[in-house]
Structures are given as structure tokens and as C-alpha cells.
Amino acid sequence: PCSRVPICLYLMSEKAANHATVICGQKVVLPDGVSLSPGYIVIQNGIIKDVSPHDPIPTMLQQSVPHDDVLEADVVTPGFIDIHNHGIGGCTNVMEYWLHDYTTQILPRYGTTSVLASLTFPIEHEGESITQKIIEHVEKRAGQVIPGNAYLAGIHAEGPIVTDLGGLPPSDVDMTLESFERFLDRMPSLKVMTIGPAKEAKIAYARLDALLKRGVKPAIGHDRNCSEAEVLGALRVAAKYRDDGHGGTNEDAGQLHMTHILNVCSFKQRDVSLGNFGMVPSFPTMPEYEGLQVPTVEVIGDLTHIHPLALRTVIQSRGVSGVVMVTDAILSPDLPTGTEVNYCGRHIVLDYSRPPSSEATASSPSSSSSSSRRVAVLASDRTIAGSCATMLDIFHNLVRHIGITVEDAVVMLCQNPARVIGLHDALGAIRKGARADVLLFDAHLHLQTAIIAGDVAYSSKEG
Length: 463
Hints:
Elements lengths: L6 E6 L7 E11 L3 E3 L2 E6 L2 E6 L6 H5 L6 E9 L1 E6 L16 H5 L5 E8 L7 H15 L9 E8 L18 H9 L4 E6 L1 H5 L4 H8 L3 E4 L7 H12 L17 E2 L15 H5 L17 E5 L7 H11 L4 E4 L13 E4 L2 E7 L21 E5 L5 E4 L3 H11 L4 H15 L17 E4 L5 E6 L2 E5 L4
Parallel strand pairs: 1-4, 2-6, 7-8, 8-9, 9-10, 10-11, 11-12, 12-13, 13-14
Antiparallel strand pairs: 1-2, 2-3, 4-5, 6-19, 15-16, 16-17, 17-18, 19-20, 20-21
């Protein structure tokens, strides 16, 4: 049945190793901006066993596949990985989102197959007691493949050590090193922590160093006015971890990340700040930058947190290899405009960042009714507090509005986030030995099927 299309993926179920399901498509997107057409992938027990150019389907294998087990797609990509997501619902209190499995159950329909639970650490409105319950729940779920759910890969801690809150609730920004170490002990699945360079400089980057020692990726951010010297100090601490102990270098260990560049950070033409460090693909050949790595940067690709021109500029400046796309989601895209939720005693409203323009044309992004044009704002002062965008929205934004190829979009939505969280050997790419997290699209890039660890987690036919 697959002779009419060029790509074949064979999914062999763990329960019946000799039984195969065939997924046929026109293009399979591989790592590093490459696509394979024609070709095929063999998946067994949830793992990709082989990727190779297409040959005629072996007669024996073809005959073992019932026709109703054949899936067809025009485009096949790895599953999307969202490393900055506060949850999208399940209750009316944002702080309690990750006490429920609602978010992981819903995300596969939007192409997200793996996610970090982004947690904040408020010190008001019983925030500390709620946070402890959330951490305990997330730790029980982290690292488990649960059928029908996006894979909860661990925790992204947005704070508590930040210089500028932005939309975050107040936290213990001056936590002592001893308290910080105990705090980290509670989160063994912690993968990324947002931390402010100006705060860290005051204690010689001791907390940032503690993260690096544990293999947690520090994400510098939430710091609007940090100085060049304060950012350089953080980069120098990270550079010490490039030595792999065997005479070589571990580039990933010595590289910092940057939380949502151009949001709650500044770019300046003379007295440079955090944003400047994220916008360059490499540092000048000057003594003060010697031996330092440019951080990877994450971008909220909803076309609202930063303007489409700014988004295009970041990608063009950094190249796709240095950019990670995230949602910074805090509300479901399915909610109606005007929905309110509670966030540590504050009201968050789902609204347009600005009234839709009557002059917008049908072809412009600003005229779209997509959730990517709406945003979550604090009702009190309309400070942006998060998005209602999905990784699928961002994928479409990149390809349809920013002019990025499907292959390059996949690098930023799949491959790069997997590397930042240290799971690139298992996730984020269609390659031999990786977990079988695969998305199937039609020719218009509408998501048809999401497969996680070899099992169908979402099908558009089932809703």
C-alpha cells in the first residue's frame, strides 16, 4: 500500500514484535536541517532501529502489515520539545496546574511530545506550601512514559534568583547558598534554572556554580540592567566546566542558556547588557572574551512577546543552531478571549496584546485569529505574564510568516531544546537509537498524528 509514496516508517509494537505498522510520507526531516526523501525508518519497542534510503518494501514485511495499520503523511518530523511551559490549565489557579496531568494529556494534540514543567517559587499567598506539593507531583511523573501523555522530562525553574520579576510573582531572590543547595536537593529532575547575573555577581556566582556542578543548565535571564562585567563573570564560571576530565572539551557543559531573549532583558548600543550577549553568533577576538562561549537563546515565538521583525533578526543573527523556540505558555489556546485565572493572588486575563487592527489584511499575521496573536496579561497593569501559544503555533509562525524552512524550524523546535536539557541522545531527532517521538503532517502542515515512544498519543481522526 505504500508504493505510491516515497517514505516508509515501520513501527513494530512491543507487544507483537513481528507485527508492523507502516507510516508513509513524502518527506522525513532528519537532524541538522537535512531531510530524507525517499527513505524509511524502522522502530521497535519505542526506539528508532534504523534510518536509511528507501528500497522497495520487503515482501515479507509488506505482507505482515494489515491495511488498516498503514498511516500516510506528507511531512514527518520529530516531536516538538517545549522547555519553558507553565502548564495550560486543568484548574483556575496557575500555581496548581502541574498538580494535574491535564497539560501533558493535551499537549500531544499540539505536537509537543516532551516538556519541562516551568515552576515559579512565590513567597506570598501560600506559594511555598503549594510549590512543595507541585515539586513532589512533578518528581513522581518526571522521566516516565505515560501512554497518551507528553513526556515530562523534568523541571525548568524560572527563579527564584532573578533581578527583575517581569510577570513572575515575588520570590526569595537573595536565598543563601546553603538554602539554595537544600532547595536544589528537592528537585532531582531539575534540568534548567533561570538565574539573574547581577544577583549572582554579588556572591561571586556561587549559586550558578552549584547548578553547574549538578549538571543543571543555568539560563541567565530576568535581568534588565546587568552589566557587561556581570554577564562575563557568569560566562567565565561556566567556561571552567568545558574540560571533560579526559583532555578534551564538553562544549555543552561549558555553555550557558538564556531565558526568553528580548523579554525582561535589554539590548544596548554602548553599555551592553544581557541581550547583546545573546545576539552574536561568536564573540569578538578580544582578551576579555577569550575562552568563552556564546549562550544558546530561547525565543517565545508567538509573534507577540517579540515582534516578527525581532524574531527574524534573532534567528538571522544567531543562526538556527543557537536558537531554541519555547511557548512560555500559561493558558490553553482553546480558552475564549477574556478568560481569567488566579496567579498568586493576581488576576491573569487572556486578551490581545493590542486591539486587532482594522487595517490588517487577511494575509498578515496580525489579522490572524490564531491563539498566537493573544497573550496572558496581568489584569492590574497588562504586563505580559505568559502565552497561550503552542509549539504547533510557533512551527506554523516560523514557516508561514518568518520564512523559515521546515527543516530549520525542526532544529529550533526539536534538536536544540533536547541538547540544552542534555537529552539529545534520546530525544529531538529522527535517527537510529533515538526514542520514537514522531509527528505526521499533511501537505498544509496540519498535524495528523503524534507518536510518543512508538505509540499513537494523538490522531486528528479521533480528536
